[in-house]
Design brief:
276 residues; single chain; alpha/beta; Rossmann fold
Amino acid sequence: MSRTVAITSGKGGVGKTNISVNLALSLSRKGHKVCLFDADLGLANINILLGLEPESTLVDVVKGTSTLSDIMMEYEGVSIIPGSSGVEELAELSASDREMLLQSFESIGDHDFIFFDTSAGVSRDVVAFCLASSEVLLVITPEPTSLTDAYALLKILLLNGFNGQTRVVLNQCRSIEIAQTVYRKFKAAVSKHLNTELSALGVIFEDPKVTSAVKEQKAMISLFPDSKAAKCVEKLAERLLAEETGDLERPDMGSFWKKCLGFFSSPLSLNASKPP
């Protein structure tokens, strides 16, 4: 059975996809079987970040012209399912097409971790992937807009009944002092106004090597393993492995997608005010 983890953020530009890719690679190198799903329904970011050119995507699976095994790509030991804007068709699938898609997902077998790199912001697909996952990694930065948008996203998840585990990753920080101050204020606002508790997975410091890796279309921890940011990612992976998750649901891929497709077609509350 798999740990299903949605990696999400309230706004774009916070480094969410970079974290998804490098965290997946770090866990794979520690001997864990990892699947990384590009769940951004508008943009295919993972393959661009890694310089991959998929011949087929999830839209081909939805159409029935490819299987999930056909479209899956391998990158340094991580299984990658490339995204596509065609995933939006999931909400309109017929019962027979939905069953065929579920069987396709069941065929890829179990992984220790399945990461869903969602699009940024609040939308039906983001909420559906988060609600179906047992764990959510919420990526924030010290920017005020990142914090208010992350608060709004978290509020919407709670309004829709999310009861999994939420952990915060603070990215693009200049110092540990800034990270501690930002996280303390964000956690206090969430605790006071949303009546829920957060935990911090860790921090990733600002590092020019991240931008260099993006330009090279290579994974940062592969290209610059001794960089400041790479070492931060390694710590995130270690903490993710060290945490107790005995009470969390660990579905197989088929069960996860049955749940996720249900959220795609169910009425969801997608409006929430930002913190006062």
